[in-house]
Design goal:
Length: 356
Amino acid sequence: MGEQQILQDKTVVVTGGTGSLGRVLVRRLLSAQLGQPARVIVFSRDEAKQHEMRLAWQHRRTATDEVIYHGLQQKLQFHVGDVRDPHALAAVLREAQVVFHCAALKQVPTCEYFPYEAVQTNVGGAQNIVRVIRSERLPVECVVGISTDKACQPVNVMGMTKAIQERILIRANYDLPETRFVCVRYGNVLASRGSVIPLFHAQIRQGGPVTITTPEMTRFLLTLEQAADAVLTALQTARAGEVLVPQAPAARIVDLAQALIGGRPIATQVIGIRPGEKVHETLISEEEGHRTSVRQGYYAIAPLLPELRGPQSDEPLLGRAYTSADSLLSLAELEGLLSRQGLLVDAETPLAEAWA
C-alpha cells in the first residue's frame, strides 16, 4: 500500500477533534486524501462542540433524534471523554490504528493561572495515551502529537507542558517500538480562536486603537490548512521520534496591524509585552539545529536520546536556531497573504460591515 493510501480502512482517533485544527483535520481525513478510513472518531470532553460538529457534518440545522441515535454506526463518530481519564482513552483507542493527539490546554494566561490543570491535560494526557497503548497492548501503528513553538526554550507554563509532552511521546518509541510516535511543532495559526487577528478585527470595528505589545515583536504565520498539511506529512514521512517543523513565513506584528488597518484613520497603541510572551518565537533551538535535517519544505528534529536515532541520513542539516525573526515578510507580501485568506477588507467598506 502506498503512503498516499496510508489511512485506507484504518480507524483514526482525533483527540481534541472539535478544536480549530481538529475540525480541519477531520475534514481532510474524511476527504480520503490519504485513503478512505473505516472510521474517524472525535474524542473530546465538550459535548456541545461535538453536537455542532455532528450537525454540520450531516448538513442539518436542527437536531432530531436520528442525528444522534445510531451515531456509532457512522463513519464519523463522536465519543465524549477526557485525555486525563485513561479508562475513557482505553475505550476509544481499543480499535485505533492511528491517533492524532490534538487535545490541549493552550491559552497562555489560563495555563499560568492554573498550571497544574495544564500539567494534567498536556503532560498527563500524553502519558495516558502511552500507558493505555502499552498496558492494553493496543494495535496502534502511529501517534502524531501536536506541539507548539512555545515548547522550544519555553518561558510559560503552556510551553513547558508542551515541551514535556513532546519528550513523553518521543520517549515512548523506546518502550513501544511497534508504534511510531512523532510530533509536529508549528507557530501561530492565522485567525484561529484566541489569536491576534480576531482581536485586531474587533478593535478596528470599534474604531481603534489597535494595541501592539512591542514594535519589535514577530510571529510565525500559518494557515489552518498548512497546519493540517504538516500533521498529515508527519504521519506519512516522519521517522520514529522525530519532531517535524514546517518552514513557515513570519512577520512583525506591527506590520500585521498596519495591513489590517489599511487606509483607515485608526491609531495603534503600544501597551507593552504581556506576561509569558517572547519578542521572537523560536521553532528550533540552537542545540536542536545541529540534529535537524532539512527535508522538502520541513525541518525534522532528530531525538535527543541516542538510542532512538536511526542511521545517519544524507539530508543537509540546519545547523542553527530557527526563529520568527529570520526571514520576515514585507508589508506588501503580508498584505498578499492576508488577502488570499480573506482577512483583508477594502478601506472603503464601512467598519460596521467589515469582517461581519
